[in-house]
Protein: Large ribosomal subunit protein uL30m
Organism: Cardiocondyla obscurior
Amino acid sequence: MFTCNVIAKLTRTPISSNFVRNSSYTKKEIKWNAENKNLKGVRYEGVTYYPRHPDHVDPSFKPSKLLLVTRVKPFAGNPWWEKKTLENLGFINKTHSNTPVIVKNIPEICAMLWTVKHLVKIVPIKLPDKLPNPDDLNSTYLHENGTLYVIPRVDPARVDAIEKFMNDTKKLNRNLIQDKLRKQWLIGGILS
C-alpha cells in the first residue's frame, strides 16, 4: 500500500487499492484455468508455454532445411569474434553486404547466427514440391523473400519457330514499312 500513498501524494487524487491490484505490474492469471489452480503448460526445450484458450493447438510446420542469410550491417566497428563468425558463415567480401549466403539449418549454424543476429537478415528458403533436375538448374531463381522458383524449359521447337520468324526476310517490321512509305511520300506515289 506504500505505492498507493506515494501515487496519491504525487497526483493529489485518492487512488483505491484496486489500481495497484489491477495494474500491469501484477501477474495475470489465466481465466479458464484460474478457478482450479491447475495450470497445464506445453514444454518447449526450456520454456513452458501456457495457451490463452483451453482448446488452443499450435499449428504444425516443417522447418526449412536451408537459410538465406544477408549481411545488413558493416564489418567495421564490431568485435573481432563477430567478424570471425561472419567469415565462418561465408561473408568473405567485407565491402559488399548485399551478397547473400545460403547455410544449412542445423544447431551449430543457428548458434553462430544467434551471435550475429543484429548484423544479418535471416530468411528461410521455401523449396518447391518437386525439386529441379541437374539439367534444369539454369532455369531456377531464388527470390529475396526465400522462395525458389523453377522456370520450366521452353520447347526447342518453339524456340526454332521464334528464331525463324525473327530472321524471316519477308516479315514486315516497323522500320521497313516506315522506310517504304517515306520513299513513296517523297516520290509522290501515295497521293496519286
Observations:
- The chain has a mean pLDDT of 77.
- The helical segments are 2-11, 17-21, 31-34, 80-89, 107-115, 156-166, 174-187.
